Amino acid sequence: MYYRFNKLNELDINSIEERIQNLDPEITVLDLSDGFLGNRSATDLLRINEAISYYLPKLETIKLNKNNFGCLSLNAFHIYTASLPRTLKKIGFSSNSLGNFSNIRVNTLDLSNNGLVGSVFNEQKKLLPNLEKLINVINSMKNVECINLNNNFISLENMELLVNRLDNKQINIGIDNIVMNIDHFWSHAIVKKITNIINDDNKELKIFNDIKFVKEISEDDLIRHLSLLERSGTPLCLFICGLLLEDRIRNTFPSFEDRSIADEMAYREKRQHDAISFYAKAARNKLFHKLVTPILRAMKDTCAFPSIKSRLDCYDLNEAVNVPLINQLGLFRLPKNSGNEEAGCAHSRALVLYS
After folding, report:
1. Listing from the earlier edge strand, what are the strands of the sheet with 146-148?
2. Among 58, 145, 215, 226, which is most buried by a count of CB atoms within 10 Å?
3. Sign of CA dihedral 12, 102, 108, 185
4. Which residues, listed in sequence order, are joined to residue 199 by a DSSP beta bridge?
5. What is the per-residue pLDDT across 86-132, written as a single tens digit (0 to 9) for each?
6. Contact call for residues 343 and 324 (beta carbons, < 8 A)
7. Predicted TM-score (pTM) of this structure
8. Residue 234 CA to its chain's centroid (Å)
9. Are the CB atoms for 47 and 81 separated by under 8 Å?
């Protein structure tokens, strides 16, 4: 059951308590938005919360959006939030100009539209103070399962630092108008960073070498990223899969201490082949054809594995030529003496094995 408390700012504290006393005790959602509660005294706020706790025993959600809580001191805000009903599972603090938060036992926290902008790191490459406080608050909320940070204009670099510092790795985060889990966020961050490089008009030659993130990408992380990105199936995501496998986006290789050098070399060779397969699929798109061609040419020139060189010999890497695709699988070209598509290079037929 929902109830909207209208014209809260026009009532004195006694009238507010009387109104709450007369509400239906079955109410589960109470909307106190636009009530200018942040302009009231600490005593008034405590009395309001006491009345809500006593007369609305089944309350699960309270909306406190646009209440000017940014006017409160940190201590007053802590006291206020600590007095909120313990039955709450969701609380809305959207559009309150907040820079400070509190330990609230809820599982969903709406902090959208609060001006938590952090466009740059400070000189010590640490989070800006308001975001540092945000992390401490979220980590103190052991029950929070989802936090909405939409429309706070937090830079990607600061979001990486923020997410990497969260204690609860199962939490869901709302950013860029998407709700995502932590694994999804890191894949999302990779996509955004590569997109920014591709869209940078100031760079004629796109550089995709040694791209790093705040969180080191482990072998387990790599598998999760590849699963999410490949499932998306867009040319961009397939291209990023190639960058990950080729280690242009830096990630940690597994330890081969207990295995032979041959095993390690086989692993590295397999990853190179897998990278080529993803690049080839991405190159069905004209934009990514232009991005993939110089990468494959560099692989051909520098790779130490004969199987890689032999496979890339089957590609037409002249970026001025828009070659036809074999079986719609990328940049493979037919031998010039063959008119039969199925008689193409042996490595083109091997693509399916590595995809």
Report:
1. 2-4, 29-31, 61-63, 90-92, 108-110, 146-148, 172-175, 178-181
2. 226
3. positive
4. none
5. 888 888 878 776 544 444 455 777 777 766 665 444 444 555 566 67
6. no
7. 0.64
8. 17
9. no
